[in-house]
Amino acid sequence: MTDDQKDQDRDDIALDEEVDIDVPDAEQSDTTRKLKEAVTVSKEEGNLVPYDPLQRYLSEISRYPLLTREQEIELGRRVREEGDPDAAYILATSNLRLVVKIAMEFQRTWMQNLMDLIQEGNIGLMHAVQKFDPYKNVKFSYYAAFWIKAYILKFIMDNWRLVKIGTTQGQRKLFFKLKKEKQKLVEQGFMPETKLLSSRLGVSEQEVRDMDQRLDGWDLSLDEPLKDDSDTERGDFFSSNSESIENQVARKEVEGLLREKVNEFKKQLSERELDIFEKRVFTDTAVTLQEIGDTYQISRERVRQLEKNIVKKMRAFFENEIPDFASYQNPEENGR
Prior knowledge:
This protein is mainly alpha-helical. The chain has helices spanning 3-16, 30-38, 53-61, 69-82, 85-93, 96-105, 107-110, 114-131, 140-159, 169-187, 194-201, 205-216, 245-266, 271-281, 289-296, 300-321, 331-334.
């Protein structure tokens, strides 16, 4: 997948989830106030404050000042026209608090390390810096919010399960909207049935059922024991029509041994017996008894007798050379 395709994929993700992101000015921002409160370290006398990576990070990014609209335009122009790395650095670092704000909005969904979301959001912020057009009269924070959000959402989908559950646009839409749409229908007095959800979300009924099952359950290991004191694994209860690895290896070993013994057996045959063996016994396209009889000027019955003797000699040879040869024969042959 090319970089442009990846960028388009993240654009689709950001536009699928319709959440308004408001980034007020520094003087009026509640988020800024909360961040400052979060990085306030208690200095109780005689106590040491435990190390917290999140607080340390928030303390670091609070040192970078916010930019005015004119500064954003000038820095964006320098990045776009001159490729100025210093301008890109200032534009990115001044918006690190925006990444934290957006990451906090998804903390209830992710419910794991917030720093993971912040890290992915920072990658989205860097892409926004590279692609920002200062001449389109769009505030950088509003533009960057969609990139930040797209990277965070993509990260959540890729790491929600061991197996990806959102690979198509329809699945991504379901991942973020299915539970919300169910709740909305219940509040409106409707039963959240599959058909109704399908029509409301614009996806097939099967996709709704599949995503519902994925979201309601967790990954299970087939190698995990059923109980703590049991050696029985979950995978032992799954039937399979394919041949197991052990049987495949054993079959190949037997086939190799048979080929070796067949070559040894051929050395014990006369020239006429070898010809009958290769044309009548050890072949998928056997010639007729009459053809062999015409070659050696003997009757068809005599050819049949010779063939029967060759097979008898071969079975005796294999039984003598291969241990447990009877277990490798076909059930039909064993019953004769």
